[in-house]
Amino acid sequence: MITMNKLVLFCGLLLSSGVIAEEAKPPSNSQSSLADSVTYDSSLTYFYQHASEINDSSEHGLKFDLKLDINLHKLGMLDHAKLTLHGEANGGHSINGRGGILMPVNMAMAYPGESGSDRSDLSSIYLTQGLSKNSALLLGKINMFEHAIRRGSGGAGLDYYMNTALVAAPTGFVPPTIFGGLYVKKTQDYSLTLGLYDSDDWVNRFDLENAFENGANVLVGWNKHVSFGGKRGTQGFKVAYSTADGVDLDELNLALLNGSPIAAKKESRQFIAYTFGQFLHQPQGEKSDEGFAVFGQIGVSDGNPSTLDRHIVIGVGGNNLTKSRPQDRWGIGYYRYSVSDPIVDALASLSIPTRNESALEVFYNFQITENINLTADVQYVKPVLKINDEIYIYGLRLKAAL
């Protein structure tokens, strides 16, 4: 949990450079009040999911989400900068982790957590410093689901897909919440992301004194903006490298047989992925965000010490499927993930059969009013553990913007 003194300390660290710089300047008559400098997005979302194959499991969940952006430039504190705060709180439960399924089938309930103090978190507190008209630097604790946005996907499990793999494909190299920095540049021709952050996950964590104690991750993401048939698209790649040591998974089988921990370590981890997105329908033209698109990611890691090996994620979705309901959203997505071979072999030695996990998710989001929408969702999953051959998960999601 985040203690108040750490929160105050970090806010002070983020703002100190701007405050000191402004002390030497004459007072400005254009400074705005705090109320004029703050924008917010808040919502309350109800979830219901049912899976008859998992002991007839049914669960209800609730999520409150609040994001604040404080314009520091308007307050006369720091030019071209803003401070972002993002708080989340979960109530109830989900069927995540049941039936031998690897990927959380309700991402929004999986983070920050579903039990005790883990149910709530200040998942983002970071400074965005504009460097030019098309580039910025982000520093602090950053909820990466905020930035996993692509046409027909993203939405942090609240607006589009519910399954984690289709909201933001896990790689093992980008934790749900990071602590560090991101450099982002977007031009008409390309977009670039450079990241340097703690190798450990910062969900429900804010211990600055232990930052980077286990290593650091480096991320490079690049997307080329393309046009196909007069419709906008992207082609790109992601590369990640981690200095964090991991257990040597080749020793896992022996450790399980002997009942002893794994002492051997493997240094560093690597990951690479190809990403793409392409509008298939843009009724308002190439510059519009209206329509629907296909998206995907194909990735591979070293497989040891990384626990995830290879994956493919592909989907199609967006809005404007019918002229009569232009604000409704819809999507059809598929993923296939494999865990590393040493883990598969070790589980086989314990007579626990595994396979590549695959799933298909279909959703339709009905825009009931300007601030309320209802999503019907179906997931068909073949779990990584062969506890069940196949699982159908039926869900409803009701979101109200506050």
What is the general shape? globular
- Corresponding CATH architecture: Beta Barrel
**Helix-strand string:** HHEEEHEEHEEEEEHEEEEEHEEE
- According to CATH, the homologous superfamily is Carbohydrate-selective porin OprB
Work out the helix count: 6
Mean pLDDT: 86
Please bin the fraction of helical residues.
10-25%
The biggest beta sheet, please?
A: 16 strands, antiparallel, barrel
Question: What is the end-to-end distance?
Answer: 26 Å
Taking all Cα atoms into account, the compactness measure Rg is 22 Å
Number of strands: 18
Number of domains: 1
Task: Label the structural class.
Answer: mainly beta
Uncertain runs:
1-30
User: Which band does the percent of strand residues land in?
Assistant: over 45%
Structure notes:
The protein is mostly beta strands and 402 residues long. It has a single domain (4-25, 37-401), classed as Porin (Beta Barrel), CATH 2.40.160.180. Helix content is 12%, strand content 47%. The protein has a 16-stranded antiparallel barrel. A hairpin with a 5-residue loop joins β1 and β2 (57-71). It is globular and about 65 Å long. Residues 1-30 have low confidence and may be disordered.
Structure in a nutshell:
With 402 residues, the protein is mainly beta. The chain has helices at residues 4-23, 34-37, 107-110, 164-167, 252-258, 341-349, and strands spanning 38-51, 57-71, 81-92, 120-132, 135-143, 177-186, 190-198, 216-228, 231-242, 246-247, 265-266, 269-281, 292-301, 308-319, 329-339, 357-367, 372-382, 391-401.
